[in-house]
Every structure is written in C-alpha cells, then in structure tokens.
C-alpha cells in the first residue's frame, strides 16, 4: 500500500510542476493588471488636473532638454507662430467616425510651428481621411501667416514591434515622433513634445482636431480579479485531482488485502 502511494505520489510530480508554472503565470498576469491599474489611475489624474481650464504657455526652450512627460503631458497650452506647411507630415492612423463611432482610416497631420523665438514645436493639427491626404484636395486647410494654437502637450508616440518603419523620403510616417520628423527636414531647436490641437473649427472643416482621448476606460481591477480567480480555481482543481489519485490508490490496496 505504501509503495503504491509512493508511486502515485511520484506520478503527480509532472502535473504538479505544470500546475505551478500555470499558477505563476496567472498570478503574474493578475499582478501586472494591478500595476496597470495604478498606472491608469495616475494617467487619469494627470488628465483631470492638466487638460481643463485656462491654457498656459509651453515650457521655455531652455528647459526642453530636461522635459519629462510625467510632469507636463496633457497640460492645456496656447502657442503662437507660423506653420511650415511645406514640412507637413501625415501620420497613418485611425479615428472614430461620425456614424456609430466606427473607426476610419486616415492621417494625423503633424506640422512644424515656427515660434517668434526661432524655435519650432510640432503640432498635430488633427485628422483627415485617406482621400484628403494630399494638401491639394484641401487647400483651405493650410492657414498662412501667424496663427494661435490651443491644445494639449503630448509625448512622442511610443513604437511597438508592429509599428512599420517610417519612410521620410516618401513622407510616409507611422509614429508621431517630432525628432525624427525634424531630422528628416533638417530642422533644429525642435521641442521634444507635440501639441495636439483642440477641436476649434477650421476653414473647410479639415483637419479635425480634438483627437486626444480624455476619457479612459479602467477595467484593470476586474481583469486582476479574473486572473486571480482562475489561479484559485486551478489550485482547487489540482488539489481535488491529487487527493482523488492518492485516495484511489489506497482504496485499491484495501480491496486487494480483503
């Protein structure tokens, strides 16, 4: 009987190791969701604190080298300058459509804004659908002379493994990266951040600003509870499996002795 139980106990080693690996993964996913929850709550707090109210001024150029997104992003600002439309950079992306919120393909127009000081800030002027990528099809969309832009400070877009490579020679862009765009056009004294223009009406209706999402979903606690719940279920299932196997071996031995 003892030998049989030892044998059955050894037969639980591989299932037990597999269960431990799965348990570690599930707990890791739950913990990661809690970390994401803290990050999301901090981001929501930043938006609520900075994105509303009267607009301020952008960070002075002397402080650009030490600019940090966690201290400045989503702040509402107003800036005046002259657009360099010859360097307009269309960045491929999706935007929510007018009908039933279905996403539509198109481009975000990133245009350098030359300040009176001689420095430059990249402005995301807004979204245009694919058929309006060519400026010739929206001639009213490029205001001349001095303009004032109100919008939100944004950090450069973070690339991921699925982001295609930009093709500056063809003016094809897939990430809102002000420094890469500045380098392609040999612009200097460029801010390390962008400004997402607000939804103020524009001649001809394009591009459409105000594309920064200010209401963010936060379901990370629910996801964390789900992963931890699956982990507890796994513990219960494996415990029942092991107990039945060990108990079953004992029952067989008793029947043989009878």
UniProtKB/TrEMBL annotation:
PROSITE patterns: SURF1. It is found in: Cell membrane; Membrane. It comes from the Bacteria. Pfam families: SURF1. It is a multi-pass membrane protein. The keyword Protease does not apply. InterPro entries: Surf1/Shy1, Surf1/Surf4. Its main location: membrane. The chain crosses the membrane at residues 12-32, 225-243. Keywords: Cell membrane, Membrane, Transmembrane, Transmembrane helix. The keyword ATP-binding does not apply. PANTHER family: SURFEIT LOCUS PROTEIN, SURFEIT LOCUS PROTEIN 1. Belongs to the SURF1 family. This is SURF1-like protein.
């Amino acid at each position: 009987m003892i030998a049989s139980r030892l044998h059955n106990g050894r037969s639980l080693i591989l299932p037990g190791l597999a269960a431990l690996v799965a348990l570690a993964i599930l707990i890791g996913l739950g913990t990661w969701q809690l970390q994401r929850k803290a990050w999301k709550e901090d981001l929501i707090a930043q938006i609520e604190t900075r994105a509303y109210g009267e607009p301020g001024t952008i960070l002075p150029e002397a402080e650009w080298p030490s600019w940090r997104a966690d201290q400045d992003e989503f702040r509402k600002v107003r800036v005046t300058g002259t657009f360099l439309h010859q360097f307009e950079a269309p960045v491929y992306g999706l935007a929510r459509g007018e009908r039933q919120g279905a996403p539509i393909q198109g481009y975000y127009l990133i245009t350098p804004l030359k300040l009176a000081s001689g420095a430059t800030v990249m402005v995301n002027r807004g979204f245009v659908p694919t058929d309006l990528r060519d400026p010739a099809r929206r001639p009213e969309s490029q205001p001349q002379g001095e303009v004032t832009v109100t919008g939100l400070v944004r950090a450069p877009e973070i690339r991921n493994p699925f982001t295609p490579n930009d093709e500056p020679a063809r003016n094809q862009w897939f990430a809102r990266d002000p420094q890469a765009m500045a380098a392609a056009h040999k612009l200097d004294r460029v801010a390390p951040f962008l400004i997402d223009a607000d939804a103020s009406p524009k001649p001809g209706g394009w591009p459409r600003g105000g594309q920064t999402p200010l209401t963010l979903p936060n379901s990370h606690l629910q996801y964390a509870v789900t992963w931890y719940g699956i982990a507890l279920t796994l513990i219960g299932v494996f415990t029942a499996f092991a107990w039945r196997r060990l108990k079953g071996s004992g029952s067989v031995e008793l029947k043989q002795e009878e």
